[in-house]
Amino acid sequence: MKAEILKMLKERQGFVSGQELSDGLGVSRTAVWKAVNQLKAEGWQIEAVRSQGYRLLGEADVMTSSELATMLDTDWLGKRLAYYDETDSTNVQARKLAESGAPHGTLVAADCQTAGKGRRGRSWSSPKGTGIWMSILLRPAFSPVCASMLTLVAGMAVARGIEEACGLHPLIKWPNDLVIDGKKICGILTEMSTEDEEIRYVVIGIGINVNNEEFPPEIRDKATSLRLELGRSVRRSPVIAETARAFEEYYGIFCRSCDMSGLRQMYDGLLVNRGRQVCVLDPKGSYEGQALGIDDQGSLLVEREDGRVSHVISGEVSVRGIYGYV
Fold it and tell me: Which family does the similarity line name (predicted)?
């Protein structure tokens, strides 16, 4: 009921009477009053005036299931929504939900993670009220060999989500980071469960630095946030909503061919590595070359000094810029 009340208040410029809310929701005015007080406790500024009703004074950066439900405008992503004020990791919770039968498109979000992690088991700082920590649960019908490309699909969706919600233009550092002005703003971690060479489920974890004003010393020179880039605080729910909308679109295109052929040109346009000298940290032997873009399987194409083009497979190696992070 809170989500419905919040949506009605957002859609109305002025006051909405308690009777109108009561009639529209089919509940008592006392129930409406209690729900409004709960929204106030969550951080919403709602004015109540006798004989006029309720009015939303401003849209704060509130992360709750009610807020997310009012913002999501998708066909299937987020129709099942799990929100936590605090959890160990949204990926962990998404996997638990998957094991208990949660459907394709389940969205897990949290205001704070106590054990967030990134690629290769690295920890991910996820303080309360600062970022977007969310995971998408998928149950695709395609082969497990295609699953790693979903990281690239998610990266494109986050890039567009940030652009639509904030006006910034992040680029992708292949395969799983987004950057603005050479500093990391988002990381993506994709995990998969298989059985008999079929996918049981895939979980895509997304962490976006939104309202962070500072970072731990070890990453201070490599990380940034939407707030630092814009010089103002940012509401997180619109970023989530726009990212979800974009992911649905790009995932649909991906599923037509189960590769990046339909998205490749768009992805290359977002690739910060493209045209740059990179160092490929391969366990078999590191080498340098120029990043050309990706192939249809999502591998990074790197032209070596002798003219050979290597297809770098995500997950096997790391790619770094010769002169810095990108």
Answer: Belongs to the biotin--protein ligase family.
